[in-house]
């Protein structure tokens, strides 16, 4: 395994900024164990027969999460695959902002707009075990993953999934609203593993990337419960624009940065 990992890392470096991590995740998947277990006790094992095939798939820019079928996020593991946006660590900034806001108490009702495979909502429900939630997405494929993830994580009775168009048809109030809408401008360049594999509908939002914020933000005042907040993921150059949209909707707004010190979340409310 040691030699195979070194060789795979060198090959994957041509298509990835994290080749060693990619190689380790693929190798652990081929071995049928966690990455941690492999690194602790399996490095002297023979390389599994299927490892090379997984590396070949990665060399076509296929996301590691699609190859392994899962991605860790916050405190949970999510099943993912073609047709859904791959959960990213940067999105944990929204959960961190919510945890800070609700310190010492808990949201009872949570809404996730553009839930994908249930990423933000299921992470929040794992954080607050008495909360219930509603996850909305336009994609039936994404909602199939979300339902499956909810059941696997034992949250099936605490969450409702709805195929819909953002806030349309929603007439209740929520303590916490989470959303990671598409925010890439149509002319922006993206890595091949993103644009070539992940769904365009979860990525692009008009020329300036703000189209979906313009639809979601004006609806927030009627959907937020007293003392509630919305945590909105943004592109790192969109802070001022989204802050202005939130303030125009009559809500206080502040910016939260991710671990890389980039603007990542606008908190409204």
Q: What does the model show?
A:
This protein is an alpha/beta fold and 269 residues long. The chain folds into 2 domains: 2-60, Helicase, Ruva Protein, domain 3 (Orthogonal Bundle); 82-268, Rossmann fold (3-Layer(aba) Sandwich), CATH 3.40.50. It is 37% helix and 19% strand. The chain contains 12 helices and 9 strands. It has helices at residues 2-12, 19-31, 35-41, 51-58, 64-68, 92-101, 119-127, 140-152, 192-195, 211-216, 220-223, 239-248; strands at residues 70-73, 76-79, 109-113, 132-137, 159-163, 174-179, 224-233, 253-257, 263-268. The strands form 2 sheets. The protein has a 7-stranded mixed sheet with strand order 5-4-3-6-7-9-8, with helices on both faces. Helix 2 runs antiparallel to helix 4 (51-58) and helix 6 (92-101) runs parallel beside helix 7 (119-127). The longest helix has 13 residues, at 19-31. The protein is globular and about 60 Å long. The termini are far apart. The model has no long low-confidence stretch (mean pLDDT 97).
Task: Indicate the topology.
Elements (H helix, E strand, L loop, with lengths): L1 H11 L6 H13 L3 H7 L9 H8 L5 H5 L1 E4 L2 E4 L12 H10 L7 E5 L5 H9 L4 E6 L2 H13 L6 E5 L10 E6 L12 H4 L15 H6 L3 H4 E10 L5 H10 L4 E5 L5 E6 L1
Parallel strand pairs: 3-4, 3-6, 4-5, 6-7
Antiparallel strand pairs: 1-2, 7-9, 8-9
CATH class of the largest domain: Alpha Beta
Computed CA radius of gyration, to the nearest angstrom: 19 Å
Structural class: alpha/beta
- Give the biggest beta sheet: 7 strands, mixed
What is the CATH third-level topology name of the largest domain?
Answer: Rossmann fold
Strand order of the largest sheet: 5-4-3-6-7-9-8
Number of helices: 12
- The amount of helix comes to 25-40%
Cα separation of the termini = 51 Å
CATH superfamily of the largest domain: Vaccinia Virus protein VP39
| Proportion in β-strands | 15-25%
The CATH architecture category of the largest domain equals 3-Layer(aba) Sandwich
Domains, number: 2
The counted number of beta strands is 9
Order of helices and strands: HHHHHEEHEHEHEEHHHEHEE
Q: What's the rounded overall pLDDT mean? A: 97
Weakly predicted, low-confidence segments:
none
């Amino acid at each position: 395994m040691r030699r195979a990992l070194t060789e795979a890392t060198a090959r994957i470096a041509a298509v990835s900024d994290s080749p060693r991590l990619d190689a380790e995740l693929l190798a652990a998947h081929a071995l049928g164990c966690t990455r941690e277990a492999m690194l602790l006790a399996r490095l002297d094992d023979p390389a599994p027969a299927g490892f090379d095939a997984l590396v070949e798939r990665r060399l076509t820019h296929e996301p590691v999460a699609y190859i392994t079928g899962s991605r860790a996020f916050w405190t949970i593991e999510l099943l993912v695959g073609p047709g859904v946006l791959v959960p990213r660590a940067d999105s944990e900034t929204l959960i961190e902002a919510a945890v800070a806001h609700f310190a010492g108490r808990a949201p009872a009702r949570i809404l996730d707009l553009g839930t994908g495979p249930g990423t933000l909502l299921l992470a929040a429900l794992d954080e607050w075990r008495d909360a219930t939630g509603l996850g909305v997405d336009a994609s039936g494929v994404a909602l199939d993953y979300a339902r499956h993830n909810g059941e696997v994580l034992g949250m099936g009775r605490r969450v409702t999934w709805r195929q819909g168009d953002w806030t349309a048809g929603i007439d209740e109030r929520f303590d916490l609203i989470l959303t990671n809408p598409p925010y890439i401008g149509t002319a922006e360049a993206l890595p091949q593993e993103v644009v070539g594999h992940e769904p365009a509908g979860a990525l692009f939002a008009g020329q300036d990337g703000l189209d979906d914020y313009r639809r979601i933000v004006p609806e927030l005042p009627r959907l937020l419960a007293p003392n509630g907040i919305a945590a909105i993921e943004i592109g790192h150059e969109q802070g001022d624009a989204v802050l202005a949209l939130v303030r125009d909707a009559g809500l206080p707004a502040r910016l939260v940065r991710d671990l890389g010190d980039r603007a990542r979340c606008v908190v409204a409310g």
